[in-house]
Amino acid sequence: MNPGGVIVDRNTHPNRVYVYDGANSRILGYLSLGVCANNPDTKCTTHSDCSGSSCNFTTNKHADIVLGQPSGWDYSGCNQDGNMENYPIRKPASASSQCSIPSVQNSPLEGGSFASMSVDSNSSLYVTDFHNNRVLKYIDPFTTDTIADDVWGQVDFSGNKCNFTDGDLATGPIPPPTDQSLCMGRNGSYQESFVAGVDVDQQGNIWVADSSNHRVLRFPAGSKTADLVLGQPNFTSRNRGSSPNQMNEPAVVRVDGQNGWVYVADEYNDRISIFQPPFTNGMNYSSTFGSQLRTPAGIEFDPNGEGIWVADHGNNMLELWSPDGSSVKKVLFKDTYQPNGQCGSVNQTVCINPQNGQCWDNMCDSRGSIGLDSDGNVFVSSSIFNQDVHRYEAPIPTPVSGQIYSANHRLFYPPDGHNLRSSKSPFSPRGMVIANNQFILSDGFKIVFWDDLSSLTNGKPADGYAGVNSFEDVDPWTLGRIAADNQNHLWVLRKGTVDVYQLPLSIGAQPLKRAISFETPLPILGGGTMSWNYDGNDFIGIDVDPSGNFLWLAQPDKNRVLRIQNPFTTPVIDVVLGQTSPTGTDCNRIAGNNTGGDPSGQAADTICMAGAVKIDRLGNVWVADNTLEYHGNKRILKFNASKFTNLTTALFAPDADLVSPRVGAYEMAFDSSNRMAVGYSGIVESNSFSGIYLNPSTTLLTSKEPDIRLNDFFSHGYSSLFDSNNNLYIADLNRGRVLVYFDPLKNYPPSPTPSPSPIPSSSPTLTPTPFPTATPKPTATPTRTPTPSPAPKTTTFKVSTSTDDVNQDGDTLSSSLKTIWLGTGSTTTASYTGLRFQNISIPKGAKILSAKFEVYSPTSPWISMSFTIRGDNIGNSPIFTNTNKPSQRALTQSKVNHSSNSKWTANTWYSFGDISPIIQEIVNKSDWNSGNNLSLILKGTGAKFGRKFVTSFDGSASLAPKLTINYK
Asked: Is the dihedral of CA 221, 225, 227, 232 positive or negative?
């Protein structure tokens, strides 16, 4: 989870507590937080709930209600779509859903939004539903239901767009607002503040900090049309600014019930602005509150009139200011008031109120609403690597230099961290192995395993753990990927070591042997040694050949990949990829180039930040020449198996036999036909759906685009694995899950039949070490019966008439030509190619797995061309005419950009990547029916006459442009 605001309903006793979970698109609600010490049957939130006694807080208490998701388990997606199933079209909102994090967010741990929530005198909850760009009202949700009862910012509960019209993955300017619209977050676009706020005044008016429109709106009670705007001169402007009548990402609005003053946390103007009635549109603020603030992102009035609490986010403090804003009375997160932008105190501090020897004093990152209960206790949320809500008990002491005050309760502790650790909840999946009828997962802090593959079901708890003492326990060092050989050995990457476990695993199993340690240099074949000089940099990629004779390790921070022969008995380094010497460690062997950003000097024999290494079914070695996020060369390398046979001395820096185009890939997996599956970095790739290459050794020579995308898994596919039945497993690093696809390639042609992997003749055969006494489980994996699902279908359609492949250059439309061109003609602003395909026999709403259009080149042109591919945004596309040209068509939001400068080969078919999002958008339209016609519109974006000519229908009906769609 990633808490982004907490609010306390003081209308009831015990007080109710709401927590905004910005990473999981939900709000957690608590009727109480514990039970009275003198009466366990009496629930409490404050000590005053327990007459003559105190409240004993429940450890890691389950929420009593969940708003925005069907339950508190297993659901976390934006609008309850955890996989971006209809990419790029976002799932509509509903009264039962929320979207606090974009559907395409790569890392929930580093994402999510914040909310300044509000509760009215009738215990109704108001919340800014950030990425649905709306405000929701829940009428007393503990006594009614968890479905929203009212909405502002959208015309109905299904709306989710910024200012009503913004595209799902729009990157251009935000559309103008209105007096009814809101814009807080855009799907897939970075937001600066990530904070929005709502408040309700005593007259029932709704006030909204409309952050991305840089304004505050007032909606009169009972109305969905604002009657007041602050920060803008009118309801259709959204310019940011720093003048007294402007705002820059306002995060919070609070209305003082005593005098009607409006306080606005104008986050990126580093100020809290006060507006005093009478109010007028676009008025200047009356004054500012406090001083030396940095990106303030929370405001709350102290219920006892002591002043105003401010979440001074940029200064990493929570401060209680005097009512007039002239002085700071109380400070949390530091010992004294220190507006220096630092996290933590300058002084050495003594902890006041430690809990069992621990000091819960510093949260640093705190934004969103601040919870204050009836006793004056303070609840504050923190996200981004400190995912919890802390309760600071009143009275909060006066700041004293060198003394820091600890919270006395944490709502989600134990354990520390963003995710519960249990038999059912993977923490951060890193690597997978299937061996001895066990599915084994390296989960970051421990090894967990499931027995009997045939019994796997959704959400099934793991059967055991290894290397630790319980499912809740953690290894003191982070675990990485894993690999297995046919000698019943499991190889585990651990910071500083490679440990070996015996298979099958049993509960609580400990390593059989430490095979490699950074503390011990290894000999090099032919002479010399390699010293590890362990400095916190660890191996990330690992694989082992079936015999266990050769272990491959990818070491990103040393910019190399190593092969170690006889790793279990007498390890010797015999191959070093990427470096020419045992001491070489520079990225691409350029001295001092170790940042791994976007390095120069790439060559077939260099490596930069290699993150994964994998042996395919033919014994070839594949390397992902990049690591997490954006580091490295961003390419895939293949080294043929023949390079590594008959070695008598170590082999340094051989050339890769295949160097892919730029692609941010993670760990590869190969099925029985040597077809490759791989996940991608969403930071490098705009489309991070995992991909499958049917013949990677051919495809990756010229294109990074896979043949198939798993278009229901827009996430961080950090590790991939095929089992013996060609079922595909993908480990989602950031969402704590493993997805299984039953034989996803059963309807696709295999790659060339694999031959047995060559065995180096100069390497000794491994003599297995005797194992501890154990009864091994059967080594054969039982055949799994896949769950029946519709079989994918592949259909090809060709342009079938003269008027269905046309060019438009300026106002001139040309058809009935022997060839047509792709790219730009004489008019750089109005060059189009229109391709219409008739009688598309695909049902409405079918799931498009892949789609490509192909053209036939009759010559060998060598000229650059650039164009954008979109679809005619209509359910049945008409023919092209002089009154209905390509330039006059409404186009799909989905698009594919193409740019190339390569020589074509005569008499060859060419395609331009996967256009399935375009086709999906069309077949999802309400007026689409099977048998309708669709058109692709290519708009030239390059230089004048930057184009290539291809065969048209009139040139040859059999060589006319064609469209191939795979769907189910």
From this structure: positive
